[in-house]
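Project channel, design review

CF: Before we commit to the Polymorphum gilvum constructs, I'd like one complete example in the thread so the newer folks can see what an input/output pair looks like. Taking DUF2157 domain-containing protein.
RD: sounds good, go ahead.
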Amino acid sequence: MFDQIYARRLKADMETWVANGWVAPEGATRILASLAAGDGRSRLPMALAGIGVVCMALALAAFIAANWDAIPRALKLAGIALAVLLSHGAAAWAADAGRRGIADLATAFATLVFVGGLALVGQIFHLPQDWAGGALLVCLGAIAAAWLAGSRAALVVAAVAAIQWQTMRSELGAETLVEGLIGFALLAAVLAHPLVHPARLSRWAALSLLYVTFGRWIVEGADRLDDAALAAALLGFAALSAALVVFGALLERRPRDGRASVFAGPGLLLLARSAQELAMAVLLLAVVVALVGISEIGEASLGTALAAPAVALLLVAAVLGSGMLLAAGAREARHRLTVGAVAACLAAVLVSLAAPQAMIPAAALALGATVAVSMAGILAHVSAWTLGGHIALTVVVLWLLSVTIGTLLGQAVFFLVAGLVLIAMALVTARSLRRAAARRQEDVS
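CF: and here is what came back for DUF2157 domain-containing protein:
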């Protein structure tokens, strides 16, 4: 969806650039032709083939399960191993022939066969009593396939298995040092893969594992999932998201020196952009959850949440990153508004946790934060921020309407104040944009 929005925006801008003489008509024609050649239709065959590969792997697992008693144990093990080896051989042949898509699908098929074989054969060795251990084995095998073959699909399987392992392993408060180190190693291996082999799906899978792993670390010290643990997790997710947004913006400002390395290549920048999109969505979700669940959180929740070292550290990192971003891009309105949106979201969550009964300040901050995120998305040309801000704003307004129903005077006062605040924000934004445009014009001249 966002690719289509970008394509429409580029086509509209191209007409302006050609009319102003900034782009030659021949160059514009080539750019638009390249854009049309790389649209979503070219990915349709691979998407269909990917679904077909999943169906074939399920068919093989179902066939073995249906004939479980009829097939000797040695033949079952040999058949599964042979299917995995042949699939990897086909992937190697396709990669050598330059067919990276086919190689990725073949590696994905081998990974799925490995998962199915492990689930079937594991019944002999009492795997149902240790599903977390089985998920860890699947994750290790998928990570090996992802790195050895450069497979994005296998990386997604590894991320899903790692998430399952994080949610199914030892009870809260019973984590050992070894489990913590294993979780960190899995996260590092999964997060590093999109840097070398960029792909949108693998980036989002890796970032999802980051949030799940972080959430597990936050609540690990709690004996149970009570209000204090939920408050710490909520503020922790908000702080992590804020840090990802501001440091991602800082990374985009870093000059490119053309060096051929993992940290200078496109993989890191693409991962940072995906992290910004997901982080802003999580930040908006934290604002909405804090506002809607404000009456369910205890008075001491903020102090308990700040007592978690990781939460306090991430809040400090978000503040420092915001200061660095403002210092680096003080003249750019999009960076100032990004920092303002992040600060408003954090303030909304903090106020909701500090004063659960103070609905009006929390609601005002939530409204301001959602509007600020939408405006930041417009200035930064990040459609996901704009869409997320609109959705969060709609949820907040509908919730406020439901909780104030029956008090028409209260509704009138609240929405009058909200309208005045929004108009004031619009005037300030318009003035800032005019000043930014004037400064850019001075720089050009």
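RD: helpful, thanks. The two ends are 38 Å apart (CA to CA).
CF: The first helix runs from residue 2 to 19.
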